[in-house]
Design goal:
Mg(2+) binds at residues 173, 193. Its EC number is 3.6.5.-. Monomer. The chain is 17% helix and 23% strand. The protein is α/β, with parallel strands linked by helices and 331 residues long. The protein has two domains: 1-156, Spo0b-associated Gtp-binding Protein, Chain: A (Distorted Sandwich); 162-330, P-loop containing nucleotide triphosphate hydrolases (Rossmann fold, 3-Layer(aba) Sandwich). A hairpin with a 3-residue loop joins strand 10 and strand 11 (207-213). The longest helix is centred in the C-terminal third of the chain and has 14 residues, at 317-330.
Length: 331
């Protein structure tokens, strides 16, 4: 199923049913009183998070979601049936925004959360309700109330403990495939990963965490350059970041240049993103001359903790898992 993380849809709750105008018509009761029943309430539109869902693909073609209208009232004081609620299943981490005002209506993060976004219209009262001692034969009833209509934007931000960030070709896809059971596409060219990939990493027999491979960021990403802003939002919900750097591509004249580019993009996109705890990891340490470049980077980074690994050979992966776990326990 294709990964879709944004959708604009229109939702409508059901209209209330009409109240009924009716009078008793029974043998030997020539002047039966009013007996029109009330209309039923319209159905609500309810969003519910389902942990098995990971994309907004269902809304790619389904742009109008409408709950059932309430049924009309009937004679003999029979009330109309309530319209059936429309339960809309979405992945956890979905934000609902009013497209007219730009205001966030609700942000559903946890699984099995429910939120009624549009309430069905009230059913109209039948003429029985309008009978009084001075007006015994009301020949009118109340119409049903219209349901609510909203145009909203759904936006999915993946929920993960750890987000892997870095320039294209840093080895993010290889790393998540080695550390978890995820199977992203891997190749030696930029933007191999076109959608975020989630994987569960196990540490020992009891501990585990969810890791997200965020597609490669480049300079100008916060403005939409490259895959840009489309994927920066998926880093927002992560607890910590793994800043992955290709040690074999470090410019020894300016060793922190690539590292600084990514951090600058995070800061320009969101102050909150820039302040997330980072673990700096130098990958591809097995490649010729990469160790020397890594030493230059570590010296330039001064007090920043740096871990060296080779995702291709598995060197340093166990140590990396343990360090991630320690950082997660702290944050």
């Amino acid at each position: 199923m294709k990964f879709i993380d944004e959708a604009i849809i229109t939702i409508q709750s059901g209209n209330g049913g009409k109240g009924c105008v009716s009078f008793r018509r029974e043998k030997f009761i020539p002047r039966g009183g009013p007996d029109g029943g009330d209309g039923g309430k319209g159905g609500d539109v309810v969003f519910k998070t389902i942990s098995q869902k990971h994309t907004l693909y269902d809304f790619k073609y389904k742009k109008l979601l409408k709950a059932e209208n309430g049924w009309h009232g009937e004679g003999n004081q029979k009330s109309g049936k309530k319209g059936e609620d429309l339960i809309v299943e979405i992945p956890p981490g979905t934000t609902m925004t009013d497209t007219d005002t730009g205001l966030i209506i609700k942000d559903l993060v946890e699984p099995d959360q429910s939120f009624t976004i549009a309430v069905g219209g009230r059913g109209g009262q039948g003429n029985k309700k309008f009978a009084t001692s001075t007006h015994r034969t009301p020949r009118f009833a109340q119409p049903g109330e219209e349901g609510q209509t909203l145009k909203i934007k759904l936006e999915l931000k993946l929920i993960a403990d750890v987000g892997i960030i870095g320039l294209p070709n840093a080895g993010k896809s290889t790393l998540i495939s080695v550390m978890s059971s995820a199977h992203p596409k891997i190749a030696d060219y930029p933007f191999t990963t076109l959608t975020p990939v989630l994987g569960v990493v196990e540490v020992g027999k009891e501990d585990q965490f969810v890791m997200a491979d965020i597609p490669g960021l480049i300079e100008g990403a916060h403005t939409g350059t490259g895959l840009g802003i489309k994927f920066l939002k998926h880093v927002e919900r992560t607890r910590i970041l793994i800043h992955l750097i290709d040690a074999s591509s470090i410019n020894t004249d300016s060793p922190l240049s690539g590292y600084d580019i990514i951090n600058k993009e995070l800061a320009l996109y969101s102050k909150n993103l820039a302040e997330k705890p980072q673990l700096v990891v130098l990958n591809k340490i097995d490649i010729t001359d990469a160790k020397e470049s890594a030493d230059i980077f570590i010296k330039a980074a001064k007090n920043t903790k740096v871990i060296t690994i080779s995702a291709a050979t598995g060197n340093g992966i166990k140590k990396l898992k343990q360090n991630i776990l320690l950082l997660l326990q702290k944050y």
